[in-house]
Amino acid sequence: MTLLFAATTSGQQRYIDSLKERLQQSGVTDYEKTVLRCKLSRAYFETDLPYALTLAGDSGQASGPDAKAWIYATRIQLLVQQKNKPAAYAALDSAMLYESKATDPIAKGMVWYRNGWLDLVDNEEDMAVSKFLKALDYFRMAKADGYAALTYHYLASIYSYGSDEKRQADYAEKCYTAALNNGEPDVLNTAYYTMGQHFYDQYKLHNQQRLLLDSALYYYNKSIQISDRESGRVLVRSNTAAVALNIANIYFQHFPPTYKDSVYGYLDKAEAIATSTGLTEILINCYGMRSEYVLQSGHPEEAEQILLAAIHQTEISPVKMPRSQSRIYRMLARVAEQRNDTKGALAYLKSYVTSNEEAVNQERIANTQRIDARYRSAQQEQKIQLLEQEAAFTQRRNILYIGLGVAIVAALAFLLISYNYRLKASMRKQALVDKEKEEVVLKVKLKEAETNQLLAEQTLMRERQERLEKELLAEQLQKQEKSQLIEMLSDKNTSGNDQLKKLIKQQQRLDEEYEGHKTDFVEVHSTFFERLRQRSGDSLTRLDMKYCSYILMGLSTKEISTRLGIEPKSIRMARYRIKQKLGLGKDDNLDNLIMSLG
After folding, report:
1. How does pLDDT run across 340-392, given as a tens digit for each residue?
2. Distances in Å between the alpha carbon of 447 and those of 387, 390, 396, 437, 544?
3. Whole-number Å distance between alpha carbons of 347 and 333
4. How many CB atoms lie within 10 A of CB 430?
């Protein structure tokens, strides 16, 4: 494992050295140097983020709108990696300003590509699609197959997990074709990952046909092979770690226990990459799979130690991970129950509740920051439009003043020369009056633009209020989940366990504060659940009804998954199952139906 990491580091250093050497060559234009610095920052972003930000941080040295568009588009990804969303949105504002002035289609495409990517990070998938498609127009114009392949990869991911099989397949195949045309190892690795995910989704959706699973493993293994063979030129190693984790999961879920060595081999590879690049989320997922393996083998004590090691990784991570911690503590409570350790289960349960509350608070703060950043971004866009209108108005006003001066001089000259020219001077004055009227009209339009800006700000404030209301509703559903968990523990033999009783009473007192809000929700949507039962023929489970409630509140797939503490792909599979129970076809929209029933 150490030798593999050393080889990867050496190969990557050769790639970095080649970029630095090109920067020193004579004849390289300033714009080409800017692009090379942006590529260097991408090579460093997983291993040395501060240095990557330094490489893409000096926009003052970038001459021209094309270079500045590249710089700011690159900084968007780096700032998100740094967990600095407000700064990322500020960089997006600057990138969009220079994109409007840029002439290089690749520079323009990069701005729209990162614009869509930022929406995807915020789970705004519908907004992301239109921006990705606009980026593709520029990349195809420039015949930039590498960047086009990366864009197709994200489009395929939007329609994964059965949300739209046809579009996922189409974008995955286009990603693969563009990557083959480009030939760069890093791009090919991404394409193999995309194709493998596509076939694995197909396998889970279509009666688990073995040919589809073999195809998924074929492309996943192609990704592993090119990552090993071209280690220094595959820069986004997180994709390789995810692929190794997926292969381990396939052998764990769909193959006999005799494939244990294969599972552990791919977990070792994923953990090695995750450890060297600081991918804590992938690392704790590896620990989780190992714990499930030993738990099935009848070794709960060993499973507990593995999960405690995962908790340690979240505690030493530079980024707080309360949602992941709550998920691990829930697994630890389950392991303690299997060991008949009631006291240990209670302790893990208390940690689970604490971590879950911290996760909710963290998500609330993140949502508030995201809304504020989008508000400032929209406000900045309004200011830019007003400045452009004001500049156009000033230019026309200056022309008007120049014309007025010329007309006056000409009129005086004509009056001195002959009385016959007075009529012509009068006509010119009339023309000036008309221009002044145009100036008045322009001022009126400017006032209307200011009014529209105020209306836009009011709309954004309403959206922010609606988001807070949805958060309140989400907290009510979370209260129901905690009540179910408390009831489950209450049903067990708790005689003499005063600590557990005290915890139950404490949780019940905290939940009483939300009763008034729950009553409002039931009164507003009193017929929603009855309509759902009638539509489904009373085939929906209690969990299905809960998913539908989340959808009615407008929560995204990722938001639902974080509320329930499960993977997003499980939510997408649940949506597919609910559509079947409600009699919907592939092309029917589940969200629209639920909104109509509510």
Report:
1. 888 988 998 899 899 888 878 877 776 676 666 666 655 655 665 665 567 56
2. 13, 11, 17, 15, 51
3. 8
4. 9
The vertex-545 CA angle with 540 and 548, nearest 5°, equals 115
Phi-psi region of 567 (alpha: psi -120 to 50; beta: other; left: phi over 0): beta
Is 188 within 8 Å of 180 (Cβ atoms)? yes
Amino acid at site 493? N
507 within 8 A of 480, measured Cβ to Cβ:
no
What gap in Å lies between CA 139 and CA 132, rounded to an integer? 10
Q: Report how far residue 212's alpha carbon sits from residue 203's, in angstroms, rounded to the nearest whole number.
A: 5
Whether the CA torsion 298, 299, 300, 306 is positive or negative: it is: negative
Q: What is the rounded CA–CA span in Å between residue 545 and residue 528?
A: 10
Q: Token digits for 242? A: 């995810």
What percentage of the chain carries pLDDT values higher than 70? Answer: 79
pLDDT tens-place string over residues 109-157: 999 999 999 999 888 888 999 999 999 999 999 999 999 999 999 999 9
Mean pLDDT of the chain: 81
| Rounded Cα–Cα distance for residues 137 and 135 (Å) | 5
Sort 123 into a burial class: Cβ within 10 Å, 0-12 / 13-18 / 19+: middle
Bin 493: left if φ > 0, else alpha if -120 < ψ < 50, else beta.
Answer: beta
Quote the DSSP letter at residue 538: S
* One-character DSSP codes across 58-76: -GGG--SHHHHHHHHHHHH
Largest CA distance in the chain: 117
- Residue 121 to residue 117: CA distance in whole angstroms: 6
Read off the DSSP letter of residue 158: H
Count other C-beta atoms under 10 Å from residue 398's C-beta.
Answer: 10
> With bands split at pLDDT 50, 70 and 90, how would you rate the model's confidence at 503?
low
Query: CA quadruple 518, 524, 530, 536: dihedral positive or negative?
Result: negative
Distance CA 308, CA 313 (A): 9
Other C-beta atoms lying within 10 Å of the C-beta of residue 383: 12
Distance (Å, whole) CA 2 – CA 10: 12
Contacts for 166-172: CB closer than 8 Å, 24+ residues apart: 166/586, 168/198, 168/201, 169/198, 169/202, 172/197, 172/198
Please give the angle made by the CA atoms of 326, 328 and 331, to the nearest 5 degrees. Answer: 110
Instruction: Give phi and psi for 49, each to the nearest 5.
Output: -60, -40
Residue with tokens 């989704």: 201
CA distance 416 to 242: 87
At residue 566's C-alpha, the angle toward residues 561 and 572, to 5°, is 60
Exposure class string for 543-558: b at 16+ Cβ within 10 A, else e: ebebbbbbbbbebbbe
- From 411, 436, 431, 440, select the one nearest 423 (Cα to Cα): 411
